[in-house]
């Protein structure tokens, strides 16, 4: 019987280490038989480690510009330090989880599409088998957004690329046939030009917010990821404040908190 994926959850690096209940909520979902797939960020910790090395973080449209020294830090922090800390957190709460990256099993296959961003991957293929195998064994896949760089012509080397976590979550949700995509972040939802939360968006409205500049910074890749998932027949996406107690549990319901994005 095919594995059903109820939700892909992106937990933003800005909420990691706060007093939120996201990981307790994940374990509760697992114990209810609704095992989620989780993509985690780690941007603030990456920035701290870059600054320790005398590197200055730079962003374009909410995406981190990544050169070779920065990529070393991204890979070490995301796939090592943060991923394994989160595995420990979920395990301590009574959950069953396996931590991997998008490079493992060639889960997230990428090319460099925008030289302005440096070693940042654009996902060209998702091979979901590693995630499905983990789910089938009853574990929560906990995924660090680092991808495998695929050769574009004979003789090109393989390598690793940084991937925005929101982007990774959108592609995974689409490839896995998830029933919902949830972004837990450090804002209440998508804001309009008057800084009020927009309760519901269509795909067209999401694209318009990006094109008009109303959506800016880190909200751009979130909305783009919602569009990616919905265009791959994920029924709904939701963006809400992950710092609030019980946010993920409520995100699985039908309430009005945050912003819904639907087709």
Description:
This protein has 263 residues and is of the alpha/beta class. It has one domain (8-262): 3-Layer(aba) Sandwich (Carbamate kinase), CATH 3.40.1160.10. The protein is 35% helix and 22% strand. The chain has helices spanning 22-31, 43-52, 68-92, 129-136, 165-176, 203-212, 219-231, 247-251; strands at 8-11, 37-40, 59-60, 63-64, 97-101, 108-112, 121-126, 140-144, 146-149, 159-162, 181-185, 200-202, 236-241, 259-262. Helix 1 links the parallel strand 1 and strand 2. Helix 2 packs across helix 3 (68-92) and helix 5 runs parallel beside helix 7. The longest helix has 25 residues, at 68-92. It is globular and about 50 Å long. The model has no long low-confidence stretch (mean pLDDT 92).
């Amino acid at each position: 019987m095919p594995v059903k994926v109820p939700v892909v959850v992106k937990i933003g690096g800005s909420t990691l280490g706060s007093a939120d209940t996201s990981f307790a909520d994940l374990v509760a979902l697992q114990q209810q038989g609704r095992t989620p797939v989780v993509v985690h960020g780690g941007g603030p910790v990456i920035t701290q480690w870059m600054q320790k090395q005398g590197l200055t973080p730079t962003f374009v449209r909410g995406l981190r510009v990544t050169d070779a020294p920065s990529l070393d830090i991204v890979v070490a922090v995301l796939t090592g330090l943060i991923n394994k800390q989160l595995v420990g957190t979920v395990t301590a709460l009574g959950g069953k989880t396996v931590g991997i990256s998008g490079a493992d099993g060639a889960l997230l296959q990428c090319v460099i599409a925008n030289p302005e961003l440096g070693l940042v991957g654009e996902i060209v293929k998702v091979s979901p088998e590693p995630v499905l195998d983990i789910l089938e064994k009853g574990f929560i896949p906990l995924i660090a957004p680092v991808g495998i760089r695929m050769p574009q012509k004979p003789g090109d080397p393989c390598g690793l690329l940084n991937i925005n976590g929101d982007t990774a979550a959108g592609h995974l949700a689409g490839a896995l046939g998830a029933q919902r995509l949830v972004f837990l972040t450090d804002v209440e939802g998508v804001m309009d030009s008057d800084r009020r939360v927009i309760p519901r968006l269509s795909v067209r409205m999401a694209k318009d917010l990006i094109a008009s500049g109303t959506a800016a910074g880190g909200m751009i890749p979130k909305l783009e990821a919602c569009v990616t998932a919905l265009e791959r027949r994920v029924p709904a996406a939701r963006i809400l404040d992950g710092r609030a107690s019980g946010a993920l549990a409520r995100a699985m319901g039908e309430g009005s908190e945050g912003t819904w994005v639907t087709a």
